[in-house]
Amino acid sequence: MDPAFYIAAAIAILSTLMVITRYNIMHALLYLVVSLLAVAVVLYMYGAPFMAALEVIVYAGAIMVLLIFFVMMLNLGKESAERERGWLKPRIWIFPSLLCIILLGELVFLVLQNRQPVSDVIIVNPKDVGMALFGPYIIAVELTGILLMAGIVGAYHLGRQKQKTLHRFLENTEV
Amino acid sequence: MILLVLLLILFVAALLSWIVAAKSNLLCRWIALGSLLINLVIVLVIWVNHTTTADRWWYNFRVDWIPHFGISLHLAMDGLSLLMVALTFFLGALSVLISWKEIDKRVGFFHFNLLFVLCGITGVFLTMDLFLFYFFWEMMLIPMYFLIGIWGHERREYAANKFFLFTQAGGLLMLLAILGLYFVHGANTHVYTFDYFDLLNTPMEPGTARWLMLGFLIAFLVKVPAVPFHTWLPDAHTEASTAGSVVLAGLLLKTGAYGILRFVLPLFPAAAVEIAPLAMLLGVIGILYGAMLAYAQTDFKRLIAYTSVSHMGFVLLGAFAFNEIAYQGVVMQMITHGISTGALFIIAGALYERIHTRNLKQMGGLWTRLPLMGSAVMIFVMGSLGLPGLGNFIAEFLVLLGSWQANQWLTVFATIGLVVATAYSLRIMQKVFFGPCDRQYTLPDLNMREMVIIVALVIVIFWLGFHPQPVLNTSQNINYVVR
Amino acid sequence: MNVHPTTAGMLLAGVLFVLGLISILVRRDIIFMLLSVEIMLNAAGLAFVVASSHWGTADGQVMFMFILAMAAAEVSVGLALILQLYHQLKTLDSDEASKMNG
Amino acid sequence: MLPALIPVIPFLSAFILMLGWKQLSRAAVAVIGCGSIALSAAVAIGIAAQFAANGEQAIQQHVWTWLQAGGFRAGVDFRMDALSVVFVLVITIVGFLIHVYAAGYMHDEPDYSRFFACMNLFVGAMLVLVMADNLLLLYFGWEGVGLCSYLLIGFWYKDPANGYAARKAFIVTRVGDTAMGIALFMLFQYTGTLHIQNILESATQLWSKGDPTITLIALLLLGGAVGKSAQLPLQTWLPDAMAGPTPVSALIHAATMVTAGVYLIARTHTLFELAPAAQTTTAVIGAITLVLAGFSALVQTDIKRVLAYSTVSQIGYMFLALGCGAWSAAVFHFVTHAFFKALLFMGAGAIIVALHHEQDMFKMGGLKKQLRAVYWVFLIGSASLAAIPFVTAGFYSKDQIIWLSWSAAGGHVGFWLAALLGALLTGMYTFRMFFLVFYGDIKTKVHHRPGNSMMIPLYILAVLSTVAGFIELPHTLGHVTLFSNWLLPVLPAVTVLQESAILEWTSQGLSALLALSGIGLAYAWVVIHPKGMVDFLEMPAILWFRGFWARGWDFDKLYDVLLVRPYVYLSRINKRDLVDKLYTGLAQLMQWCHHMLARTQSGLLRWYILGVVLGAVAILSVLIWRIYI
Amino acid sequence: MSFADFISLGPLITLSAAVVVAMLLVAAWRNHRMVYGFSLLAFMMALTAIIPAIKYIPHAIPPLLVIDEFSLFNTGLILVAGFIILLLSFNYFEEREERKEEYYLLLLLATIGALVLVVSRHFMSLFLGLEILSISLYGLIAYLRTRERSDEAGIKYLMLAALSSAFLLFGMALVYAFTGHMDFPGIGVALRQAGYLPVSVMAGFGLMLIGVGFKLGIVPFHMWAPDIYEGAPLPVAAFIATISKGAMLVLLIRFYQDIHGNDYPMLWWIVAIIAVASMFVGNWLALTQQNIKRILAYSSIAHMGYILVAFLSGVQTGLEAIAFYLVAYFITSIGAFGVVIVMSSSLQDAETIADYKGLFWRHPWVATVFTAMLLSLAGIPLTAGFIGKFYIVMAGVNGHQWFLLFMLVINSVIGLYYYIRLVAAMFSVPAPGEQTMVTPALPMAGNITLVLLTILLVALGVYPTAMMQLIQQMMRILV
């Protein structure tokens, strides 16, 4: 593999490590953006330039920014970071990490049993992706529309600013 | 067809009495009583008109139900079924009578449940399709559960739950065995059916047969009940209302015994022979252990309940003796135990109505006040200790005589059971009717309705004791005795 | 080095996935948990692309796009829900949201 | 005449008395109760006359088939042969006399009707017992008399002690019945029938003499007989059975029921002859019982208990006779014993009533003057029991046994000595009782004199106790064998090994001497009681023995410790049923599982996520396990 | 897309169109009754759309979807179930939130997700169907925003669903990476051709099972179930219990059949352990639970375990048993939730056992219906549940799964305890002066629905032949 892959992979892992250890959510989010960018590089190297672009634009550019805006909206400042520091005691880490490392170990063990012949990365160019997307997978695209619609309706209903909506009964009694 | 009618009469009467009860409790009771009496008359007419030379199976009735699985609505009657069904209707009618005054709340639902459970029991005795058998087997549990759980005494819910869980557990094992048999039969003959007659003589490996037989046997042992599966019984019998206790002791237990005779032995002859010593041992343990427990009880109904454990041990002993004498004894025991224990429960209920306790320590000297009741108890207590002249003696004697041919040591111990039976039986008389009486107030002795019930039972038990031949002739037709 | 590229890519995805998993396990802040899930989803997406590059088919990349769409929808609904919860509990501590148990 | 009428009449009258307990007047009850037995007796006498006239072997009657199943058949069949006739006559005649007596004795009893119903029922059952043609019907009667015994012992049900005695009687005899039941099973197993005649016929073909099987069967039958007849080791119930009204004691626990064992063994004598070991056992039991019971009778204070122990002792004689093969001697003793023991019991009853239900002999005394009629009949009875030579029936019947216990084929010198010792004891305890009651100072006032209905039966029995002996006289004294001849078709004549008149004389003389010296000792003890005698009796060792004997050799205590208490204790501690604990434990285990698992449903999101991760690890682990390990 | 494609996808397309129209309607004129009516109409139309589709089966729309008897049967089942849930919803929501209209949109969307699951045979459609279902459910579960428990349930479901989706995706990626296929038959063929045991693919299956297991609510992915059942609005809980699980199960069956799952004993082992654990954990947890919603949740965990026993039997009968059981389970669960719905007042849900104490003596018909439902869950004769359980046991015996069956028997007995406890509560005689908290609403529509469900339940219990024949025909295609 390309050294560039290793460098990108290392950056991705390191910055993800930073994400999961930060107390301040803003820092974590920014590290996550770095991680996503590194992953984008990896994606590029695996012959998916279009996906790399989407990763940068949608993931890092849209979703993360949405999160950042949300955090800013809730105005989570220093105290939340302090609280996070209080929660993330070293011993909290031990059991989950152990468990997850076991999981990783098993996963790696199983993946390494792969007996496929070594072959190079095959580049799939964006056109092929497009052809597939609007060819055989057109129904999936339409389903994605429905998926997004569900997301929108759900977010709309849940996110509506709450009015003073007490139940009729409670209204009658309390007022 | 007439068999289906028997079931339908009960079913319709069950619904009708529930509906009618909204208007009139009395009418509801009469409907229940009437339906049972009609059925009783039908069965008796069948019995009287039946000639011994005829085919073993009468009124074979068969309609496809779920042909997909080879399940059919298959009813048939032979001597054993006839006797059991007659007993069912007889005790059923008495149960309605005994509840006449005792049950004054939710009368309609009570009779609905009572008739429904009787319908289920009748179904169990008549069906010749294993799926249908299981169906009825389970169907009778729910109304019985209600009979215990709604109209029972203080710890009724506990008792009802226990009863339900025990019998269900056994039932499910039986379901496994039924299905196992179904597939074994299907695999060997390529005919997939639940029909009893087809499943008879299913060729199978001895190992398979052993396991399948165990499935059936455990279900029936729970119902019979045999030690160590008996612990649901005292609770259920004690807590149930009088009619509930009568149906439980008189009929429900018989379904287990019936199952052993009808299914375990004929379906798995070889495996049954293998297990016989163990089953007989369980029977003997039941006889002695039940008697011992009965001796210690201070609750009248609980005491009677444990005597059931003891008496049903004879059924187990006889069923696995594999000879006709024992077999006839088992049939007799099923009937006479139903009569005598039912009678004792009825009297316990009548007594409870009068003195509002079941605690033997609070009784004593009641003979002065209740000589009629005392005489009745005396008769049935004597029945339960196996006094000749009463039906129980015939049953126990035949069982022991038969089982002696099969296993002598166990029979010796079972015979010792008669001695301990004497101990607990006489204890009843002593604690309840004899001894000093410190009650100042008078108690009403048996009233007309109770007299009718008791006299009917007394007549039957004496009839069975002095002239059991009609019963023996009827059950004789069955050549179940394997080996 | 002669590492199978698919294996290497899958391993990277696996490591990222597990890191997300550790994070979701140790965090109590709901936003952090949502973040961790995003890490995991992203790792899964990466795995698809890696697989796609091995077979040279576009399926994996198409799947990646759908994952992206799903992640977006998920985050939007999730944030709306977190907002509700924040209004009610006045905190983002997931342990506070444990009124139902037993 | 129909033999079936004999038991049916009492049954019918019992039935009528039970149903009419409210409606019937006392007089009607007495008439029905006694009349039925009289009728029955008349029929019995008629049949006996017919029997004697025609010289028939037996009269049989099939009433109906009781049950028939799988090769087993038993009918309600009656058979009257010589043996049955003897028993039937004794039962009906003595029974009638006792009934008449009871009509007076129980006059103040509120449950008059119930009493007579039970008594009639008893007579009916007893008649079935002795007339049964098959062992199952015999067993019916056997258990039926047990039931009536139970009902009548506990007749005064308000006293728990009576109830206890009644239960004890029933349960102890049931132990014997169990053995008998098993004997029945075995007989059916080998002979295929319970028909007595068939069994007796086939037994000789099936078994050679001394065959273990037949020995076992005979021993089991003996077990049944031992229970019913209150012989060692099941004798403990009879003294307690005295809790019942005195006519009951007279009828059931002296004259008839307790001798059912004798009847059974006599009836199945063929089997016993085939099993010499069993026969010897019978004799040994009889010998030991008669001595032990004699000692116990010697030290009782309750008049009825004296009689009870004496009954045990006298039945011991009968068993001894049976064991020696002297069948007719046993039956003869049964007859005379029925007469004089009924007489004694009823006499005692008359005394008891007279003294306002006082049974303690030490509170009686000096009654000779006050109850002269009773005194005389009681004297006759006592003399007969003590076997005063030549004039009493008891002498002839008992002496025959004493002699045959040595000389008969199954006899032994040890038996003879025991029997002689018994004769001494009998004389002692009988007259100790007699003197205690009728001599000495007046301790309790007589407040009620027995009426005619009570006294007339006593007179009749007194006569019978005297003259009945003359139907069977020993070789040495006239050699009358009316009785044994009568029984000859059924019971074989005894085989006497030593037909020596001298020896027989010696034996008779010795026994007569011993009986008389027993009386003398009693007289010395009770009436004269010199200082030395009293001192001797007050010695601590003797006192201990007196207590020990009075408690019936502590058999009660032995059974209590060995059987009753362990059983009661076990059943008490197991009242809640240990098996149930198993299921309760199971239910608790389920509950525990529930609570453990409910804690995992903590409501914490992180915890749920951890569950998912654990699941993931588990799945992959199982995968690796199934693939590689 | 061809005409045949359109007709075959009729129900799906009808519903999708209906959502859009409904959304527009809501945008134009908010009216609860109108949206309700329209949704009912949409369901009915979708149901009608099945009829023309029958003509074209089996019809594949490569690579994503396949419409055959099996999927059409389940489509119908889901639509009927959705229809009934919808019927029961009106009064429930009428009483509660001021904005009810979105509920219907989300319900329709969720149903679409479920329908996609039952027709899909490709990872992509699987994933999208699953996510449509999940994301709609986030909204539905937290729908009653004023209630704290709704939000809590929503966030829990969201987090866990996202997490399990991630596992599912990673697993799919592994499968894809090592087989090169995302369509089920392709994977099956690739596995058969591989010539060696594709361990990495198995790892992928294992991880996918987490996603599937989460939706099915089987151990150890079951922990959300009680909380979500308790917090979600009752009709939604009914939806989750039935449609969501049913659709996933259908998909699992199809997937398992296509990849020839029976060839891989390690998969059998994993599922077997899960099945046994589910039965025990579900029943144990329900044992002394006082909240009826939670009891139903736990019981559904156990019931999934029972279904897995049939699934593991590896015989044709097993699949038939699942299909039949599913029908019975749908009727029973919706019926049980329906009773809780009609029993709930506008103030609070009737969710504790105490609310049902002596119900039989106050509202005999409701109690009878509930009793029938509970007995069906317990598998007592005269109910569909009995035949269902019988069928499962039959399959197990046929497949010689004695150990699993034994576990099933033990668990049936444990399960009986809590069902019968509920029944006992309803039939117990309340002490004088004892008042329940909840005044039941008992709306007419709900009552009628319940009675119809009960009749259906008993009819299936007494005469199951017709349904069995239908299922048998349908399954012949699959195997």
Description:
Chain A is mainly α. Chain A is 78% helix and 0% strand. Chain A has helices at 3-21, 25-45, 49-74, 78-87, 90-111, 126-134, 138-159, 168-174. In chain A, helix 1 runs antiparallel to helix 2 (25-45) and helix 2 (25-45) runs antiparallel to helix 3. Residues 165-175 of chain A have low confidence and may be disordered. In chain B, 75% of the residues lie in helices and 3% in strands. In chain E, strand 1 and strand 2 form a beta hairpin. The longest helix of chain E has 32 residues, at 148-179. The radius of gyration of chain E is 21 Å and the shape is globular.
Features of the shown structure:
heteropentamer; C: 102 residues; mainly alpha; Helix Hairpins; 0% strand; D: 629 residues; two-stranded antiparallel ribbon; 27 helices; 2 strands; globular; translocase (chain C); transmembrane helix (chain C); NADH dehydrogenase (quinone) (non-electrogenic) activity (chain C); EC 7.1.1.- (chain C); NAD (chain C)
Specify the biggest β-sheet of chain E.
Answer: 2 strands, antiparallel
CATH architecture of chain C: Orthogonal Bundle
- The proportion of residues in beta strands of chain E is under 5%
Helix content of chain C: over 70%
> What is the average per-residue confidence, as pLDDT of chain C, rounded to a whole number?
88
Order of helices and strands of chain E: HHHEEHHHHHHHHHHHHHHHHH
The poorly predicted ranges of chain E are: none
Instruction: Specify the overall morphology of chain C.
Output: elongated
Subunit structure (chain A): Composed of 13 different subunits. Subunits NuoA, H, J, K, L, M, N constitute the membrane sector of the complex.
Family (chain A): Belongs to the complex I subunit 6 family.
Pfam families (chain A): Oxidored_q3 (PF00499)
Subcellular location (chain A): Cell membrane
Question: How are the secondary structure elements laid out?
Answer:
The complex is a heteropentamer of chains A (175), B (483), C (102), D (629) and E (479).
Chain A: H1 3-21, H2 25-45, H3 49-74, H4 78-87, H5 90-111, H6 126-134, H7 138-159, H8 168-174
Chain C: H1 5-26, H2 30-55, H3 59-89
Helix pairs in contact in C: 1-2, 2-3
Chain E: H1 3-8, H2 10-28, H3 32-54, E1 59-61, E2 65-67, H4 69-94, H5 101-119, H6 123-141, H7 148-179, H8 184-194, H9 199-216, H10 224-231, H11 234-258, H12 265-286, H13 292-312, H14 316-343, H15 359-362, H16 364-378, H17 384-398, H18 402-427, H19 444-462, H20 465-478
Antiparallel strand pairs in E: 1-2
